[in-house]
């Protein structure tokens, strides 16, 4: 069951099933689904409504996809890329003939690129979809066949991401010791990917390996993705979790409660500089000060090898009301000046290792990440 964009649907998760060894709620849908055939649509969980309501929205045009990405109804770099790829299909479908189809597809892709600037997966997925459109044009394929191949590619991007998330979890679980605490920031689970997640996939797989892991979850101000989304996901999968305010991280580290920090990423430069949710850089500095390893879990699609370092990563600035009116409640004086960057950049020297679908990558990053680029080509 689902609602059209803007409509409400409350769904109470109850039952569980096993999927490749990791529990998943039968009544909790995937964050992103394609429903139907070529004339179908994209169904998303509206993550702005969690955890109080589990609501799905059906997106039947590119404008609804753009709004869902911009307003964080779908978020997380891999999930944004998958959604954009599927959004290109629904946008391409409005052009009803072969003549001019490729140009129309490029226009839709350019439009979707304006939704959010930082997550490289958005641009990577749209570039990949455009290459399919260009190949179809070169082969003078019929209109319907082009659309079918675009949908096939979007689903392939989704399926590849799911496989990468599983591999990330399998590689990364070896980094987490038994009877340990691991601190994570923002949301990097199934809600942010095709399934399982990146940093949370590591925690899920460690839990399934019977390691006694306690996850410490930063609330992640100002939009509370940690408290609203990550804590919810960990509960659903039966992983022991403790929610903390962002400014409590140093204390739990000093108290010896945390033995590792693991986060996701929205864009990683060729030298390993990492853009992630605002507050990540501070955690990396704290982890360094306390002698705690700081890990970044991300698929190869999150690495932007065209950027030499993090200085070239665009940082999105968002509406001041996200800070002054969290959840719609005014907590600051009217007209106060607000600075609200959505991301920060963690220097590569603070990262103990990157966990990718191809394995764990350690310094020196320029050389070793270049090998990842070659293997992913």
From TrEMBL:
SUPFAM superfamilies (alphabetical): NagB/RpiA/CoA transferase-like (SSF100950)
Annotated GO MF terms: S-methyl-5-thioribose-1-phosphate isomerase activity
Family: Belongs to the EIF-2B alpha/beta/delta subunits family. MtnA subfamily.
Involved pathway(s): Amino-acid biosynthesis; L-methionine biosynthesis via salvage pathway; L-methionine from S-methyl-5-thio-alpha-D-ribose 1-phosphate: step 1/6
Encoding gene (name): mtnA
Organism: Kolteria novifilia
Amino-acid positions noted as binding substrate in the UniProt annotation, renumbered to this chain: 75-77, 116, 225, 276-277
Active site, UniProt feature: 266 (proton donor)
Record's keyword terms, sorted: Amino-acid biosynthesis, Isomerase, Methionine biosynthesis
UniProt site (Transition state stabilizer): 186
GO biological-process terms attached to the record: L-methionine salvage from methylthioadenosine
Superkingdom: Bacteria
Enzyme class: isomerase
Pfam families (alphabetical): IF-2B (PF01008)
Protein name: Methylthioribose-1-phosphate isomerase
Catalytic activities: 5-(methylsulfanyl)-alpha-D-ribose 1-phosphate = 5-(methylsulfanyl)-D-ribulose 1-phosphate
Segments traversing the membrane: none
Entry's EC annotation: 5.3.1.23
Function statement: Catalyzes the interconversion of methylthioribose-1-phosphate (MTR-1-P) into methylthioribulose-1-phosphate (MTRu-1-P).
């Amino acid at each position: 069951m689902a609602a059209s964009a803007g409509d409400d649907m409350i769904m109470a998760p109850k039952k569980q099933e096993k999927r490749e060894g990791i529990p998943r709620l039968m009544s909790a849908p995937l964050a992103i689904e394609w429903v139907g055939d070529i004339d179908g649509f994209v169904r998303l969980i509206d993550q702005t409504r969690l955890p109080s309501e589990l609501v799905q929205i059906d997106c039947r045009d590119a404008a609804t996809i753009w709004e869902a990405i911009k307003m964080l109804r779908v978020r997380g770099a891999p999930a944004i890329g998958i959604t954009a790829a599927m959004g290109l299909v629904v946008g391409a479908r409005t052009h009803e003939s072969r003549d001019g189809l490729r140009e129309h597809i490029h226009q839709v892709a350019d439009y979707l690129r304006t939704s959010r600037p930082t997550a490289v997966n958005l641009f990577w997925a749209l570039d990949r979809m455009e290459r399919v459109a260009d190949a179809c044009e070169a082969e003078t394929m019929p209109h319907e066949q082009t659309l079918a191949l675009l949908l096939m590619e979007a689903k392939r991007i989704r399926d590849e991401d799911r496989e990468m998330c599983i591999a990330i979890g399998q590689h990364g679980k070896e980094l987490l010791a038994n009877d340990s605490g691991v601190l994570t920031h923002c949301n990097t689970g199934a809600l942010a990917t095709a399934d399982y997640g990146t940093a949370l996939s590591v925690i899920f797989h460690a839990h399934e390996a019977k390691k006694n892991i306690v996850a410490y979850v930063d609330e992640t101000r100002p939009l509370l993705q940690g408290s609203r989304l990550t804590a919810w996901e960990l509960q659903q999968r039966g992983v022991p979790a403790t929610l903390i305010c962002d400014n409590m991280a140093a204390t739990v580290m000093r108290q010896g409660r945390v033995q590792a920090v693991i986060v996701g990423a929205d864009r990683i430069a060729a030298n390993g500089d990492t853009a992630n949710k605002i507050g990540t850089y501070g955690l990396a500095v704290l982890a360094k000060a306390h002698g705690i390893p700081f890990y970044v879990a991300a698929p190869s699609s999150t690495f932007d090898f065209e950027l030499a370092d993090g200085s070239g990563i665009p940082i999105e600035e968002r509406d001041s009301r996200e800070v002054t009116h969290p959840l719609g409640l005014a907590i600051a004086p009217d007209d106060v000046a607000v600075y609200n960057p959505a991301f920060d950049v963690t220097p590569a020297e603070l990262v103990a290792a990157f966990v990718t679908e191809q394995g764990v990558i350690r310094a020196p990053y320029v050389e070793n990440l270049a090998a990842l680029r070659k293997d992913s080509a």
